[in-house]
Every structure is written in structure tokens, then in C-alpha cells.
TrEMBL record:
PANTHER family: LPS-ASSEMBLY LIPOPROTEIN LPTE. GO terms for molecular function: lipopolysaccharide binding. The lineage of its organism: Bacteria, Pseudomonadati, Pseudomonadota, Gammaproteobacteria, Vibrionales. It comes from the Bacteria. Residues 158-174 have a biased composition (Basic and acidic residues). Coiled coil: none annotated. GO terms for biological process: Gram-negative-bacterium-type cell outer membrane assembly; lipopolysaccharide transport. Keywords: Cell outer membrane, Lipoprotein, Membrane, Palmitate, Signal. Component of the lipopolysaccharide transport and assembly complex. Interacts with LptD. Residues 176-185 have a biased composition (Polar residues). Residues 151-185 are annotated as: Disordered. This is LPS-assembly lipoprotein LptE. Pfam families: LptE (PF04390). Together with LptD, is involved in the assembly of lipopolysaccharide (LPS) at the surface of the outer membrane. Required for the proper assembly of LptD. Binds LPS and may serve as the LPS recognition site at the outer membrane.
Length: 185
């Protein structure tokens, strides 16, 4: 009964069938982000294979960590900071277009200059958590490829509007049906 309601365990992303094996390339094969993405691929049952023209590929393009001061102490030192972690990556499934995405993770933390050593360890832990969360977001986005990147096919659906006929793609028909259902609710 639980399978009929759509319930899935957290982290089970129902990736498309085309992505049961994937080639992973990265700007740095030994980075923490690459290891986190490899771990997420293994957890979701995706085999990592060598790049070919017939296998889907995931390319980690870049990562960046930016810092912004949110508040100051009375002596003009930074009290609270915001960390922003950005990852750019692209996904190529054979027969579909290359899609480039960016995922962003934000975190705030208090920076106390009196406990500099403890705060540097805390910051390292926050950065690790942000990388792991970005890797999860990459897999979540890949799960959406099933709906977002369906190949466009022209079907024989013909619409009649004021005596004019036009051919419509299957994707457009489904999109119009879903928007009609949303507006009626």
C-alpha cells in the first residue's frame, strides 16, 4: 500500500533508466566534492564507467566558496558570516541536449575571535556539510531529468482554434493539460 501512495525513503531519487551507469569527470578528480558525488552515485546504485559516446556523463565544472559579513561587533570585527558554496556541473545524456546547472548552498555561522581554533574547526565542518548537501542536490537534479529532458516528438495531435489547424508537440499537450488541471484546482 505504501508504494501506491508515492512514499519513498529520503535519498531514494528514482533516477531515469538511462542513468543506471554514468561517467564522472571533474575539475579535480581528488577533491572532496568529487568523492561526495561518487558516494551519492554508489548509494543510488549507479555504476561509474569510463567516458564513451553512448553513456551519460556528469561533468563537475567548478566549485567556489564565498564569504559575506552579516553583522559586526562593536570593535568592527565580523560577528556573523554567511558562507555560499556554488557548484557548476553539466549532464549529457546521449540523444538529449547538454544541460548545465548550478547548485548553491548557504550557511550562517558566528565568528568569535576569542575562540579562533574552535571556530576554524567549526567552519571546516560546515564546509564539509555544504559539499555533501551539494552532492545530494546534484543527484536530486538528475532525478528531475526524467521529466525535464524528455525528447521532443511531434505527434499527430491537431488542435482546432477558430477554423485553424496546427500540429502540437506531445510535450506542449502535456504541459497545457497540467496547467489546466492546476488552474481548476
Amino acid at each position: 500500500m505504501t508504494s501506491a501512495c508515492g512514499f519513498h525513503l529520503r535519498g531514494d531519487y528514482l533516477l531515469p533508466d538511462e542513468v543506471h551507469e554514468i561517467s564522472l569527470t571533474s575539475f579535480d578528480q581528488y577533491s572532496s566534492l568529487t568523492r561526495d558525488v561518487q558516494k551519492q552515485l554508489r548509494m543510488n546504485g549507479i555504476r561509474q564507467v569510463a567516458p564513451t559516446t553512448v553513456t551519460p556523463s556528469l561533468d563537475l565544472i567548478s566549485e567556489s566558496l564565498n564569504e559575506r559579513t552579516l553583522s559586526l561587533y562593536q570593535n568592527s570585527r565580523a560577528a556573523e558570516k554567511e558562507l555560499t558554496y556554488n557548484v557548476s556541473y553539466s549532464v549529457l545524456i546521449p540523444g538529449h541536449d547538454l544541460k548545465t546547472y548550478t547548485t548553491t548552498v548557504n550557511r550562517n555561522y558566528l565568528d568569535n575571535p576569542l575562540t579562533a581554533l574552535a571556530k576554524s574547526v567549526e567552519r571546516d565542518m560546515i564546509e564539509e556539510e555544504m559539499r555533501a548537501q551539494a552532492a545530494e542536490q546534484i543527484l536530486r537534479q538528475m532525478a528531475r531529468l526524467k521529466a525535464d529532458d524528455a525528447p521532443v516528438e511531434t505527434s499527430d495531435v491537431i488542435t482546432h482554434d477558430d477554423e485553424t489547424e496546427s500540429k502540437v508537440t506531445t510535450k506542449e499537450v502535456i504541459k497545457s493539460m497540467s496547467t489546466t488541471a492546476e488552474t481548476t484546482q
